[in-house]
Amino acid sequence: MASASFFPASGTSCEIRGTASDISRSGTDLDVENCDLQITSLLKKRRLSSTTNFFSHGVFRKIEESLPTLHSPDYYMEPCLKDMVTLEFLDPGYCSRVPDFVVGRFGYGCVKFFGKTDVRGLDLDQIVKFDRHEVTVYEDESNKPMVGQGLNKTAEVTLRLQIKNIELEEQEVDDIVKKLRESMRRQGAQFIAFDPAYGEWKFLVDHFSRFGLSEDEEEDIIMGDATGVVQDPGEMNGGGNSEIDEGMQMDTKGLVLSHSLPSHLGLDPVKMKEMRMLMFPVEEEEELEDFRGVVSNQKQAFGKEYIRSPLHNSNQRLIHRSSPPVVRKTPVALLEYNSGTFDSISSGTVLMTQENKGMPLKTIKKEGFKLDLKQETPVTGSHSRNIVDAALFMGRSFRVGWGPNGILVHSGAPVGTNDTRRVLSSVINIEKVAIDKVVRDENNKVKKELVDFAFDAPLNLHKALNYEEKEVGVGFFQLKLLKVVSNRLELSEICRSYIDIIERQLEVPDISSSARLVLMHQVMVWELIKVLFSERENTGQLKSMGADNEEDMMQDTKEGPPEVDLESLPLIRRAEFSCWLQESVCHRVQEEVSSVNDSGYLEHLFFLLTGRQLDAAVELAASKGDVRLACLLSQAGGSTVNRSDVACQLDIWRINGLDFNFIEKDRIRLYELLAGNIHGALHGIKIDWKRFLGLLMWYHLPPDTALPVVFRTYQHFLDDGKATFPVPIYIDEGPVEENANWSRVERFDLSYYLMLLHASEESQLCSLKTMFSTFSSTHDPLDYHMIWHQRAILEAVGVIHSNDLQALDVGLVSQLLCQGQCHWAIYVALHMPYHDDYPYLQAILIREILFQNCESWSSQESQRQFIEHLGIPLQWLHEAMAVYFNYHGDLPKALEHFLECANWQKAHSIFMTSVAHALFLSANHSEVWRIATSMEDQKSEIENWDLGAGIYISFYVLRSSLQEDNNTMGELDSLDSKNAACRDFLGRLNESLAVWAGRLTVDARMAYSKMAKEICDLLLSDISEGSTRDAQLSCFDTVFNAPIPEDLRSNHLQDAVTVFTCHLSEVAS
């Protein structure tokens, strides 16, 4: 590349002189100095927003668009912006493949992204954030790219730890390294090294979220009290001026890195505190003033540039200040949110109708948020009462969303509504997606008969079919996946059974017209499946049977269907399809015939021919005295010789110049149809796609044409735009007026896909995902209840093979769960095809069903038995019920189910914190013993077993031995041995209290105290039996260390004083 000298020698001007032609004419190589000079000017322009027209050349405009942005003065990147511009200028596209890109913050650390990284247009100020001993990349999860893209990739992180004493001993360094390794293991990262001389900690991450130390870990690694030292960028850069605007220099003395909960949740602590005070305005004036002071200091320190503000100082004052209890008030309608800057009091002002103490609030709007009705929605081109969610305008902190079974909770209102109450954001609306339209009548009420016919009856029929099992290992369990198997000889009977169910559903009263249309279409689809894919039994095989069954064979042959020649099977299938087609279009023919007046009998004849109602057509023509036409009609669709004769006669008339104006147009139309010219016959007339297919098969193609040829011919006409599109039934015959705008790229009717499947079964020209979408058979995009069965039966007989129709299975699962039929939902999940890439898909789905719908299936014994019969591991059922009872606070039941599902750690935790003490205080010792001993065999898997349930076991064993009711510890025959055993138990009891301190209730502590009291009483009851005074005093010393009430301790102290006094008397005497 060559370039002219764009800049004066002084380098003070940043205006490019010349054009690309000047560069080519110069012939001078672009050296690094000239390029650096251009880059310097570009950098100044980018930082100082110079008004000079620097980008007069298109190349530099592209360079600017490719550069990342980084405005924070204490952040840096490598290569720096200056070098990046240089390299992008010399090597266009460099910013899309920057090797080993580094982003860091002075005094905090840096991140090195391995490999080539695309940094074009990245806003590094928002993406990469360093805080005290932590780094966060893509704090906003919604903007985080996939792993491996952007900055969400493998990287080496270096964090600078602020340690109290930098001169550490070797043992202290080893302890820090051990704790850092453990921290990295918990966070899923890999520890690399720790340099105690500089406090640098390096580790490797595969992808990003938040990595670093928690507050507890910081205290454990003897961190300094002060925050990380933020050095001056100029000093860190060797004292040079890094061309940062002086107005952007920040005062770092007051910067305190917040470790509060809002910070860890990715929220702004300042805004969260402001919102809390707005919603609970009974706080004292002092807190408001403290808060204002923080915002004011922040404004002075940072100007209009937003940097996370500390609340540390004000929070410290609030913690030590005693304030009256906060009284919660019912929130009122939130009317407006104005996003502001630091020019105002805060970064955002929430206006509410309630008066807030000390805050200048006023009501601006009363009607809430509304969408401009002049703007059409991008989906439908109309409004269709779309919901405007006021919470969406308020930000995600206010957002509400989806619940189970299609429940939507929102604070919005339909567009254009006149109900002003509904647009207030404090009014929560609960709505439900219409997943259950199929079981509702025309009055929108759920009918139990429709539920039975839509779900129960078809699934019971499906379950009655033959199926094969495939065991799949899921951890320690085996899951039996199911697959229906059948053959084409049985297909006719299976289709008939499904048709019977649908016909009974049609008899249910009050079904809407659209639902009735879909049901009738489903009947015709099952009939079409039977016609296209069923096979007849070859009765000739009976002749090969033994002679001993000759009489039975003759009887079966006589009763069964007649033997059919294999060569005639295609013609028989064609005849059956022709009957199916006539039946499908019969009602359409009758509708059009009824609209024709008596004088238009020729038009009447044509419509009868479109449905191949030849008998009626011939009878009508004869009744009108048109005998010759009746004779021609009687031969319609027959021999191709007759068609050729009629076509030849029409050609002769045209050649001889016959004036067709003297012949009725409808008669010419009939002649064209009889001649096989269907396009000429349909000139000026529109018919549905099924009748067009019928005209093609009956009058255009030879009568012995096989069905695959018929279907392919129709497809060719469709590709050429000469055939009617096979639109779905709800558009073809329903109230939806979309036929005019329908194009061939849209989904077609399921019947047409079945025809394509029959025409090319091996290659499967049609997409199965498109074929088995709900739009191919119904207007309800959430109704999968019948198309799932059609897919299953076609797979069972070997017509199709697919393992990527999981959306179809999950769609039916959602419908079943909406009706509370969890057992059938699990049954459908077990029929999902196994995929090597997703080996645990079925297990994950089944467990989710069990967990989310536990209340439904656990309360119905029939459903639970059905699920167990399917081979679902019982541990999964118990785990789901354990979580359910634990959530609802029924901890004894939760404990039992956690024990059944072998979740020993969780069971042990519930036993210790919620169950054991209640049973113990109620003297139900047998139940405590049963539960504790049931976990004893797995004590190696339970944390703190000896200080948990083991305490109760030790108590019962020790108490039994001390009472001498059951001598299980024969060595406790002396006072010293008993004292030692009691001292050991009471010491463990104190350790247990220390371990479980924060989780034990008052009742639990009372149980511990009662155990200690019983052991102490049993121990002291034996001190007078020939023991020495030293042994007696040692027993009292053991009792004093027991966790018993102070009044008991005082009583024992008095006894000890008495014993000691006696001892002194004995010594004196």
Span between N and C termini? 117 Å
Structural class: alpha+beta
Count the strands?
17
Number of helices: 44
Q: Major beta sheet, specifics?
A: 6 strands, antiparallel
Radius of gyration (CA) equals 42 Å
Strand content bin: 5-15%
Spatial strand arrangement across the major sheet: 1-2-3-6-8-7
User: How would you describe the shape?
Assistant: elongated
Mean pLDDT: 75
What does this structure look like?
- The chain has 1069 residues and is an alpha+beta fold.
- 48% of the residues lie in helices and 9% in strands.
- It is built from 44 helices and 17 strands.
- The chain is elongated, with a radius of gyration of 42 Å.
- The relative contact order is 0.03.
- The N terminus is likely disordered.
What's a quick, concise take on this entry?
This protein has 1069 residues and is an alpha+beta fold.
Note the topology:
Elements: H1 20-26, H2 32-48, H3 58-66, E1 75-78, H4 81-90, E2 98-105, E3 109-117, H5 124-127, E4 128-131, E5 134-137, E6 155-160, H6 170-187, E7 190-195, E8 200-205, E9 210-212, H7 215-220, H8 233-236, H9 261-264, H10 269-279, H11 285-302, H12 312-319, E10 334-339, E11 348-352, E12 387-389, H13 390-394, E13 407-410, E14 412-414, E15 429-432, H14 448-464, E16 467-474, E17 477-484, H15 488-506, H16 513-533, H17 550-559, H18 569-594, H19 601-610, H20 614-623, H21 627-634, H22 640-655, H23 665-674, H24 678-681, H25 689-700, H26 707-719, H27 729-732, H28 750-759, H29 768-771, H30 787-796, H31 806-818, H32 822-830, H33 841-852, H34 854-858, H35 861-869, H36 874-887, H37 891-900, H38 904-921, H39 925-936, H40 949-963, H41 975-995, H42 1002-1020, H43 1029-1040, H44 1046-1068
Antiparallel strand pairs: 1-2, 2-3, 3-6, 4-5, 5-9, 6-8, 7-8, 10-11, 12-14, 13-15, 16-17
Helix pairs in contact: 2-4, 14-15, 15-16, 16-18, 16-28, 18-19, 18-25, 19-20, 19-23, 20-21, 26-28, 31-32, 32-33, 32-35, 33-36, 36-37, 37-38, 38-39, 38-42, 39-40, 40-41, 40-42, 41-42, 41-43, 43-44
